[in-house]
Amino acid sequence: MGWHSKEKENLESALGESTLLILQLGKQYNLRMLLNVIKGAVNDKEWNDCLSEAVAWATGDQLGKLFATILVDCEVAEPFEVWRTNMDILAEEMSHDITPMGQLHEQLHEGLNVDQKNIHESITDSVKSTRGKLFFVHGHGDAYGESSCDINRGSQLVEVLLQTSLIIWDEAPMANESSFEALDKSLRDIMQDKYDDSMDRPFEGIIMVLGEDFRQILPVVPKGSRNDIVQASITSSYLWNHFEVLVLKKNMRLSRNSEEDDLVPVPPDIMLNENGDPIRTIVEATYPSLRSNIANISYTKERAILTTKNDTVHDINNVAMNLIEGDEMTYFSSDSICKSSTHVNDRGQSLSN
User: Which of 149, 170, 155, 159 is nearest to 59 (CA)?
Assistant: First the structure.
């Protein structure tokens, strides 16, 4: 197979502009490293771009190793210039002072109530002792079947997981139980050489902390029944028996001495002047000239009033309906119609037998 000089020149130019691939991509990253050893890079721009992009996700230690890998394994035209260009970000990341983080931890720990401190101690003790316990923190809010996670052996993500002691999964009641089981099976598979009894250790011994309140939104099952939704919950998984449930009994939001912290200041330029009826004021400001524009689809489509309570929704609807001329008609909806007692004509109207 022959090479035309122009085609080779174009290929070398393209190789010289390759961009960063995150290490966890595994095979793709290795292919990228193979491409880097092909001669033809016209400058060190790709190495500078690689280090600049890595700052967003890499730790100081990882950034230092990446820089060393570039110098040793890649064709760097001007090593000193690459160092001079990136020495500020390298020095800042590698000399990061964690003292403020420790001070913030102490400050937050002092603000915990009794239940929160007990839960904190239980989890930290499990991490220090590497017992690999599973916790579900039940408190107020402040994939299917044989599925598995797409985690490749030998990837950077596996290296991270091998060093992981604790995983915190927030909003856990909203996730399908198959998601937890997929992660469990994947961890047991890719890390089976770490422990002899890996098949008997949920999540391969990594401490799992799930959080949130079962009284909030449960997993969404399209067209599912109540039983389907319950079966999709983490409590229906074979993993649930391994969890220790820790309960937060005190609602910190309701225990505040002042409601001022919950108030959000609204800029004066977007506030409406109330004229005795705040709801009517909002409706008229959102839907000016409603009577003459009610048939205009674009007019109604580009406007909406949002509120948090159904009672307020009804009040807003009543005010808006009173501004519209004509007879009021109520339409009822149904998931299905019993064909034994009714017939449906072409217009969807129900006719009695």
Answer: 159
Between CA 227 and CA 229, with CA 228 as vertex, the angle to 5 degrees is: 90
- Cα 82 to Cα 43, 74, 89, distances in angstroms: 10, 12, 12
Distance CA 329, CA 352 (A): 20
Q: What pTM value is reported for the model?
A: 0.46
pLDDT tens over the chain, length 353 residues: 444 444 444 434 444 444 444 444 555 566 666 665 555 445 788 888 888 888 877 777 788 888 888 888 888 888 888 888 888 888 776 666 677 778 888 888 887 888 888 888 888 888 888 767 788 787 654 444 456 677 777 777 888 888 888 899 988 888 999 889 989 888 887 777 666 666 677 888 888 999 888 877 888 888 888 888 888 899 999 999 989 888 887 776 666 555 555 677 888 888 888 778 889 999 999 999 888 888 899 998 899 999 988 899 999 999 998 888 888 778 877 766 666 555 555 444 544 44
Question: Is beta strand 166-169 parallel, antiparallel or unpaired with respect to 207-212?
Answer: parallel
Beta bridge partners of 247: 138
Written in H, E and C, the secondary structure of 50-64 is: HHHHHCCCCCHHHHH
Q: Which of 208, 204, 143, 226 shows the shortest CA–CA distance to 177? A: 143
Say what the alpha-carbon torsion angle 268, 271, 274, 279 is, to the nearest 10 degrees. -160
Residue 117 corresponds to which tokens in the numbers above? 């401190």
The total number of residues written for the chain in this structure: 353
Tokens 């931890």 belong to residue:
105
229 backbone dihedrals φ, ψ, rounded to 5°: -70, -40
Contacts of 176 (CB under 8 A, 6+ apart): 143, 144, 219, 221, 232
Residue reference for tokens 């122009």 = 6
